[in-house]
Amino acid sequence: MKRGNPWLWSAAVLVYAFLYIPLIIVVLYSFNDSRLNAEWVGFTLFWYKALFNNTEMLLAARNSLIIALCASFCATLLGTMSGLAIHRYKLKVLPVLVFTPVAMPEILLGVSILLFFLQVLNFTLGMVSIIIAHTTFCIGFVAIIVRARLQGMDESIFEAARDLGASPWQTFRLVTLPLIMPAVVAGALMSFTLSIDDFVITFFTKGVGEPILPIQIYTMIKVAVTPEVNAISTLLMLLTLVMIIIAARLESNGSSEGSAKPHTAK
Amino acid sequence: MALLEIRNVTRRFGSYTAVDNVSIDVEAGEFFTLLGPSGCGKTTLLRMIAGFDLPDSGQILLDGKDMVGIPPEKRPVHTVFQTYALFPHMTVADNIAFPLKMAGKAPQEIKKRVNELLERVHLPNFGNRFPHELSGGQKQRVAFARGLVNRPRLLLLDEPLGALDAKLREEMQIELINLQKEIGITFIFVTHAQDEALALSHRIAVMNRGNVEQIDEPSKIYSAPRNYFVADFIGKISVMNAAVMEAVPSHLKLAIEGLGEVTAPAREGVEVGDKGVLAIRPEQVRISHPSHESQLKNHFRGKVHDFLYVGDVTTYIVELVNGAYIEALLPNSAPGRAKFFEVDDEVTISWRHDAGIFLNDSQ
To answer: Where is the chain membrane-spanning (chain A) (predicted)?
Structure first.
């Protein structure tokens, strides 16, 4: 195999270093037996133990999990329906409407959702408002993944189901849903990871009540960057990483198996 | 009463008329083919029969019942798709069982019927495989089995052999004929391949630009095309401009510009003075050495312009004295000999007085 251009190689190494060294440092210092993030003293699990005795932090983690589960569930449901609709009805404006929130600056979304809740709905901010806000920005991601999966599939499979006696609902349940399932699950995992570490939109829509994990971490850092923050960050990173890997695998498996068209077809 | 009656069906897409006032009757038990070039409306017509598309006007009657407004799943019509459209997440057995399950058949019966069909399409041990583990021909067989298993009144086949290579295609053609004969279900077959249509069908409807040009048995379509389009689309044919000099019940006398007089079979509605073309199939044209005096009335001198050797036969393209080209087919019956004439050889071209067909310009 060719080694390739050495400049390209070093550029790549630098980029990855830039991306991952900060993360690696956070992980390393979460095991450091020192209060300061300055020098390596020795290995310890003390900060994890401290973390699990921090009731405020545990409450925040629990809240964030509830929000992420609810938001990813709603977003998956609505996003899958949007993805199907965008694929089915070739209206140009539909995908734009669904995908725009994905590209929109989060601060804009945060402000607009806040104003909507307060001024239009006169809604009390709290867990519910966060769940709704997270759902709105996750729908687009799910819809994109689901539509991409549908685009790779042979349309006549769905027609065949109808043709052979399945009602529209049976066609969806027995053919469409099983075929897009990898994309639906990938979309759900993606939504979960987006929701659990979202700061900006959460900040705008949380109100004064319950502690939420990313904001709790920020509050702790304001006082001092303790290894406890490193510990919770490491755990969060681990959770996100696992989900992203599963989502990526589902998506790639899905697309290879989903190429249902015969190889010999024109 | 015909099993399927298509009455004055028209389908437009914007300003484009895909199917233009088409009427076709298909009898029970028939192997009926819709043949035409791409864009002729054959697939649109098929989709309307299946229920995926609706006519703008006209009726589609199955067993005398109007199908318009009845969704595809409620029609006793199944389709074999060009891409096979097997469900990739189901096994072969589950694919074939699908229409039976949808029809609410009992599990024992489903099992029995699935095994029966697997047997019939020569895939008895393939029930547990998934579609992606099958070859193209095997997928094709599963698609046939799935379409036939619930005994539809009508099986629609949308260019089902289009994706197969030539050899497999021929095998599947024979299997298809046998399947249809054994099961007795009416087939409507869509194809743009004229050889396939001729080989398989009881009757063929030749379509062009949304219209039906001719509905007939294969041999009639081939030997007595109603117009130039049909003559040209089905098989190979040479044409020469001709004018009618004499029209009597027994024959026609035609004047071919720069060549002379030709005798052709009589045709209804042809009158003296009509202008058109004489169309003649290569296998009806004889090619011989110029020294050989032809006994046939229609014989002319020419020069070999080119030839096409395809193994069993060689097609010679001969330039006549008036500059027109005519094709002559010669079987390579002499062992070890690939051709009888060379380019630029002087030859005699002849054909029987009852060969060829005069086609009016207006038709």
So the answer is: 7-31, 65-86, 93-117, 123-146, 174-196, 229-248
